[in-house]
Amino acid sequence: MTYTIVYDHRGNPACVQAGDRSIPFDPQNSDFQDFLRWNAAQAQPLDWKTSITPPEPVLSANEIDAQTDAAIGAALHPFAPIGEQIGELRNALVVLFNELGIELPVGFARFNDIAIAEIVKGQAKKAVL
C-alpha cells in the first residue's frame, strides 16, 4: 500500500490518500490506524501533522490582466485611469511634451515606472501559462 498526504487549499493536512480512498485523520478509524503503523515502520515517515506553503493558484490570462490593472490602479489612483487608458495617456503625454520641448515631470516618470513594472509582472505570469 502506498500512502500520500493530501493538503487543503491553505496547505493544511486534510487526509491520507491510499489508492482511490481518502482516510480521515481519525484515531478511531481502522484505516488511519493502519496508516500510522505503516508510517512508523518507514525509514522516512510521512509528516502528516505539518502544514505546507500552499501553491500559488493558477491564473488565467484574463485574471492576470485584471490583477495587473488593479495593481496599477492602486498605485496610481487617483492620478491616472487603469488598463490600456494608462498606456494611451502615457504615450500621448510623451509625444506632447516632446513636441513642446518640455521635460517630463519627475512624478510622471515614477508613475510610468510603476505602470511598466506591473505590466512586466503580468506578462511574466502569462508567459508561464
Helix share bin: 40-55%
Coarse structural class: mainly alpha
Mean pLDDT: 81
Major sheet characteristics: 3 strands, antiparallel
Q: How far is the first residue's CA from the last residue's CA?
A: 35 Å
How big is the Rg? 26 Å
In sequence order, what are the helices and strands, one letter per element? EEEHHHH
The strand order across the widest sheet is 1-2-3
Unreliably modeled segments = none
* Coarse shape: rod-shaped
Q: Could you tell me the strand content as a percent range?
A: 5-15%
Per-chain topology:
Elements: E1 3-7, E2 13-18, E3 21-23, H1 30-40, H2 61-76, H3 84-100, H4 106-127
Antiparallel strand pairs: 1-2, 2-3
Helix pairs in contact: 2-4
Provide a descriptive summary of the structure in words:
The chain has helices at residues 30-40, 61-76, 84-100, 106-127, and strands at residues 3-7, 13-18, 21-23. It folds into 2 domains: 1-55, no CATH class; 61-127, no CATH class. It is mainly alpha-helical. It has 4 helices and 3 strands; from the N terminus they run βββαααα. The protein has a 3-stranded antiparallel sheet with strand order 1-2-3, covered by helices on one side.
